[in-house]
Structures are given as structure tokens and as C-alpha cells.
Amino acid sequence: MNTPAKAAAKPSPRSGRKRAPKAQARRKPAPHARRQVASSATPHGPRSSARILDLIAGMWAARAVGALARLGIADQLAGGPRTARELAAALGTDEAALYRLMRAVVSVGVLTKAPGGRFGLTSFGQCLRSGVRGSMRAAIASEVDTVHWACWGQLDDCVRAGKPAFERVFGLRNPWDYYRDKNPDEGRLFSENMTAQSRAEVHEILKAYSFSGARLVVDVGGAHGAFLAAVLKRVPRARGVLFDQPDVVGRAQPTLDELGVADRVERVGGNFFESVPAGGDLYLLKHILHDWNDEECVQILHCVRESMSPAGRVAVVEMPLIERGGAPFAALLDINMMVCLTGKERTSTEYAELFRRAGLEMAGVTRTRSAVALIEARKA
């Protein structure tokens, strides 16, 4: 391409002079040429701008799909496509606003929109129905609830202060108090979220790790007992204890009935900072330790150690961080912990140190094909 700068360096065909050797023909580029070179070296361009816009849209999309889930729109569409007018009458919403919400989630593959304005569920959107196998309705609805949304809005301040935002925003020590005392509806969604995540992860855990030999399985902070039920099904002779806050285990009966283990499970309410049920030879802690700081984790693990049988084992299920690349979800989940709680995601080495401080020792780390790993500990 013959740029103005190149043309200026070219001899006139009428001059009759020979071209100078290339080394001698180099001249100082014109000012506008220097600006072109500089602009091509800048880090921002169309691709960078598009990626930033994708990140912004991702936030909007998550909130929109969360609203869709909380309003129960997917359940209303289980029988087939419907118009915004039909759905607004059934849900008690504003028709125009509902239409705009559904039109937006069409763009992320959750709904379809046919001529005539009838909206239907895609195969992906089916997972937003409640009460179906593999449902993720509670997961997305809970993760964009009042607690998470408000705390993430304070991320800048959390980085400055090194403290979570929850207590400052809500005036309570932790989300569990909020869910129990201030917003039990969101508390139920959160418990359902934990159950849904358990079901999604448990299959891979059971394929990777053997629970054989267990006789009394204590699920510490086990919510509605989905993980405990899966372990009990794998070890038919074992019995279980589901341990969580009294209001949480009080709502666990339907899940235990559905999974067919209710007659083998004792439900116990309490506080795992004070004590846990005694005599177990297998203690499950699934996504518990990441909620708390190191001192609090040691306190929980110490209670477990004091209660477990001499030959017992502790099975901690978490998403270990991998410092050199990898585990991107765990790294972002760590920020979720930072804004909401005193906890954090940890490396396997950091978990080993927690065990040591509580009088336990790491016995091994079992990776799965999912993001979680099972970290086993025994009495030191």
C-alpha cells in the first residue's frame, strides 16, 4: 500500500536519479505516521472493547435469568409456549416489563420467541424449572439474591479494608442470621441451592472416592442432606446424622423422603462452633470451611476431632485453588467469600495447615472430573 509517507520517500520518475540504497533512503517518518504506529501498539482495540462489554452483559444476564427463576416463569412455561399477556395474568406482573425481561433472556439462550410473541423454554431453559432432575433454579436465584448482590456492590471497600461487606451492609454477623431472622424465603432458596449443587457434584465424588467401611456418617452443615443421602446409598449398612442449624434440618424431611433414606437419618440441630454429634467414623464437611476464616475453621475441625471415633476420617469437599493457572471458578468464588463472609478458597497446602492446627493430618487429596476435590484427614 502506497502511504503518503512512502510516496514522499519515492524519487520522481522524471528526475533521472537512481534510487539510494535502502539503508540511506530511510527517513524520519511523518508525524501522522508516528501516530499510526503508536495507536497500533495500544492495548485497547475492538477485541478488548468487545470483551469488556461481554463482562458487563454477563452481569446483566445473570441478574435477568435470576429474576426469571425467582418469578417462576420457567415453571409457567413447562406446559408449552405462552405470551407475555398470559404469563403476566398468571404471575401478577406488569405485562410490558415481563415481555422485556423474556425478550432479554432469549438473547442468552434460555427462552425462544416465536411469531405472535409466544415464549417457550429451550433445552437449556428447562433447568430453571423447579422440582425437575438437575434443576438449577435455586442456584441462580440464590446467587443473585439480596445478600450476594448487595455485598458485591461493596467490593471496592472490601479490598480497601480487607473485611467482608455483609456486617456493614446488613448489621448482622453473617448471612445465616439474615436468612433465618430477616428473610426466610431467601434462606429456603439458599438451602435449595446447596442441595442442587450437591446433586450436581456428588456423582463425580462418588466415582472418585470410596466411602466403604463407614458405619455412622455425620454430615456437618449438611443443609437438606443430599450429600449424606448419596453416601448412605453407596454404603447400605451405614446410618447418618444430618447436622445443621435447627431451622435448616427442620426443612430437610422432604429431601430425605424423596431420596429414600429418611429412616436411616437422624436430624440434629446445633452450632458446629460449639460441638458436633459424637461417635461418627466419617464426618462430611462439604463447602463449609471456605465460609470461615482460619481461626474459625480450626475451631470447627477441633470440634470434629473431639467427637470422631479414634479411627474416624474427615472428608472435606471444596474447590482447591491452583496458584499457577487453572481453577478460574474457584478464584472468582474466593471473591464471593471475601465480600460476603470471613472465609476464602484455599490451596491443598493451606487445608493441610488447618488440619495440623486442629490436631488432624491430611491423608490425601482426591481430585474429581468436576471443580471439587475431596480432602481427607484423620487424627494426628
Could you characterize what this model shows?
The protein is α/β, with parallel strands linked by helices. The chain folds into 2 domains: 49-129, Arc Repressor Mutant, subunit A; 166-379, 3-Layer(aba) Sandwich (Rossmann fold), CATH 3.40.50. It is 49% helix and 14% strand. It contains 19 helices and 10 strands. It has helices at residues 4-9, 22-25, 31-40, 46-71, 73-76, 84-91, 95-106, 137-143, 146-152, 155-161, 166-170, 175-182, 184-208, 226-234, 246-249, 253-258, 294-307, 328-340, 348-357; strands at 82-83, 111-114, 118-121, 216-220, 239-244, 265-269, 282-286, 313-318, 360-367, 373-379. The strands form 2 sheets. It has a 7-stranded mixed β-sheet with strand order 6-5-4-7-8-10-9, sandwiched between helices. The chain has a 3-stranded antiparallel β-sheet with strand order 1-3-2. Strand 4 (216-220), helix 14 (226-234) and strand 5 form a beta-alpha-beta unit. Helix 13 (184-208) packs parallel to helix 14 (226-234). The longest helix has 26 residues, at 46-71.
Short description:
By secondary structure, the chain is an alpha/beta fold. It is built from 19 helices and 10 strands.
The name of the CATH superfamily of the largest domain reads Vaccinia Virus protein VP39
Estimate the mean pLDDT confidence: 89
What structural category do the secondary elements indicate? Answer: alpha/beta
Uncertain segments of ≥5 residues (pLDDT<50)? 1-25, 33-41
Report the major sheet.
7 strands, mixed
Rg result: 28 Å
SS strand fraction? 5-15%
Task: Strand order, main sheet: write it out.
Answer: 6-5-4-7-8-10-9
What is the molecular shape?
globular
Label the CATH architecture of the largest domain: 3-Layer(aba) Sandwich
Tally of strands: 10
Which bin fits the share of residues in helices?
40-55%
